[in-house]
Amino acid sequence: MTTAPVADQRRLLDLQALDTRLDQLAHRRRTLPALARLAELGTQVQDLHGALVTSRTAVGDLRREVAKAEADVAQVRTRAARDQARLESGGVGAKDAQALTSELEALARRQADLEEVELEAMERLEAHEGALADLTAAHDALTEQVRVVEAERDAEAATIDAEAAGLREQRAAQAAGLDVALVALYERLRAQLGGSGAAALRGRRCEGCRLELNPLDLAGIAKRPADEVVRCEECGRILVRLAPDEPAAPGVSGRA
């Protein structure tokens, strides 16, 4: 394609301005501060979850250890009570009484040892349960932070999406009726050149690459018909020829 109506070429700058604004909004949405904060919180939640699993496992193991220690103590106490009852019944001989007395002494020592084991296990269990309670509270607080930041993210994204929807409507209206071949070239260049397919030529300067064209290129452009589509020799964008004081895209306002 070599030509397009001058009015269409000028409208192309408005289309470019809308596309630039949409690209800025898309970038803003991808880089919301809330997203970075959520990623940071996600790492913290993951680490805390691992600590919780470890702590819960330790507490479960200690509860079983305490239960076993309690059962061992109870078993010794039951046996000691049975022996004591036999001894006090008076129905045993002197030899059996002596044996029962010795066994009761051994059971008392065994009970003391087992109670010490039980107490130590209970103390460790209490410490681990306290740590688990602290971890659980920290996890709950972190989960609440995530919920708050997610709400911030959703609110910010909704605001951006609403603005983008309005701009897309403007873009559709702006593109309606434009020269099809001109738009096709513009879209192809936009994809190749980082989102910018058209720029104003104001005086000697291409406002796409911000470079000044050399006099020979400028003279060649000046000789071409107004409806001929020209390209910047430096960046390859479509050049829309404007007077030095002419606005490039009067229909678009706002900033990223």
From TrEMBL:
Domain C4-type zinc ribbon: 205-239
Xref: InterPro entries: CT398_CC_hairpin (IPR056003), Oxidative_Scav/Glycosyltrans (IPR052376), Zf-RING_7 (IPR003743)
Signal sequence interval, chain numbering: none
Pfam families per the UniProt record, alphabetical: CT398_CC (PF24481), Zn_ribbon_9 (PF02591)
Keywords, ordered alphabetically: Coiled coil
Protein's recorded name: Uncharacterized protein
CT398-like coiled coil hairpin domain sequence ranges: 15-194
Gene3D superfamilies associated with the record: 1.10.287.1490
Domain of life: Bacteria
